[in-house]
Amino acid sequence: MSLQFTDEEFQSAWRELDEPQLEGGWELFTETMGVKIYRLYDKETGLYEYKVFGVLTTCTPELCADVYMDLTYRKHWDGYVKELYEKDFSGQSAIYWEVKYPFPLSNRDYVYVRDRRDLDVDGRKIWVILARSSPETACAEKSGVLRVKDYKQSVALEADGDCGTRVFLNYFDNPGGMIPTWLVNWAAKSGVPGFLTDMQKACSNYKTYCQKK
């Protein structure tokens, strides 16, 4: 049993597949390739939190969850990853992730914890993965790389009744530093659908990758 995430956090993630929670200022930001992205303005940071609803048409939810959890494989298919690994930091297991940013911006890195649960909800199989930054983890910051200290993400996956997967994704991160608005908007409008497309492709290649290992 994970001590980092509560049962309620897992429940609220999968419930969004049934009833998207969009009260309180959420606005439709963009809709592309069958993916709807909503955003909520965070007054404290001046940044947005995002909720993404879509379907990955060619992969099962269990496969999506396996691919999402496989950090080594992600280094093969996600071109923005510079470093990514899980290790023990002074007795606490956490994930270190360095993300490439376009020149002249500094790369960002994350230290975070995550947990996956494969749920049975009245006979429905739903996969939920939660992650959030872990500033208390004893991982030294690198020179020239900005540490993202405020990051959270939740993913819920369920079969779409055909050969695909219904996806709910909720995320917020505060990348720090002076990031131009155009880049933030690009990351949300193009980066998220692009990530889902890459993820779908990664799912289709996963069996071959596992056989080669």
Automatic annotation (TrEMBL):
One of its GO terms (cellular component) is cytosol. Transmembrane segments: none annotated. Residues 23-208 form the START domain. It is found in: Cytoplasm. InterPro entries: START-like_dom_sf, START_lipid-bd_dom, START_lipid_transfer. SMART domains: START. The keyword Metal-binding does not apply. Keywords: Acetylation, Cytoplasm, Lipid transport, Lipid-binding, Phosphoprotein, Transport. SUPFAM superfamilies: Bet v1-like. The keyword Transport applies. PROSITE patterns: START (PS50848). It comes from the Eukaryota. GO terms for molecular function: phosphatidylcholine binding; phosphatidylcholine transporter activity. Its main location: cytoplasm. Interacts with ACOT13/THEM2. PANTHER family: PHOSPHATIDYLCHOLINE TRANSFER PROTEIN. This is Phosphatidylcholine transfer protein.
